[in-house]
Design a protein that fits this description.
70% of the residues lie in helices and 0% in strands. The protein has helices at residues 8-34, 41-69, 81-111, 114-119, 134-164. Helix 2 (41-69) packs across helix 3 (81-111). The protein is elongated and about 60 Å long. It starts with 7 loop residues before the first helix and ends in a 13-residue tail after the last helix.
Length: 177
């Protein structure tokens, strides 16, 4: 049986994760990057960012499992052969980058002993900076790639909605088939 919409769990997770990912990217690139490690607010920002990153990882894995176990609507053509060929790999790359972002964040946190500092008794202090950590470099390299891929994803959705007018966005919303 062919479905016309994505499973409601996928829809809910898609929109929840979209908000969480955008907020985490903003907090990481703006608030955390601009707050020195000796500022007492840094701990609260890190706590929020690390908690969100962990939640994003868990929700992405649930979303991935749900996507693999539920029927999907058929692909929609853009009318451009290259775009049709790239759509599927770019969606998988989006999954991979989000998961890699969360994993490199966890690796960086572990390397800098952040769980003990941020979630512990508050006795330890943050290192002067994180720039010496290879995990920080990877986390920082993935972020702009993820932003670029999100922009491509949003641009493609808007193209389908406003130019093609093919109802693609309705498939990623709640409703009856």
């Amino acid at each position: 049986m062919e479905v016309k919409r994505y499973h409601p769990v996928l829809v809910g997770l898609h929109w929840l994760l979209a908000v969480m990912i955008l907020m985490s990217l903003f907090v990481g690139s703006q608030a955390l990057a601009e707050t020195p490690n000796d500022d007492p607010r840094k701990i609260e920002l890190l706590r929020a960012h690390m908690t969100a990153g962990g939640m994003i990882l868990v929700l992405m894995l649930i979303r991935l499992a749900t996507r693999l176990m539920t029927p999907l609507p058929p692909p929609v053509s853009t009318g451009h052969p290259l775009a049709v060929r790239l759509a599927r790999p770019l969606h998988w790359m989006l999954y991979a980058l989000v998961i890699a972002m969360a994993l490199t964040g966890m690796a960086m946190a572990s390397a800098a002993s952040l769980p003990e500092i941020v979630f512990g008794e508050g006795l330890a202090v943050l290192p002067r900076d994180f720039s010496h950590l290879p995990e920080r470099t990877l986390h920082g390299l993935i972020a702009p790639l993820l932003v670029l891929l999100i922009l491509v994803h949003v641009g493609a959705a808007l193209f389908h909605h406003f130019i093609r007018r093919d109802g693609l966005l309705q498939r990623m919303w709640f409703g009856e088939d």
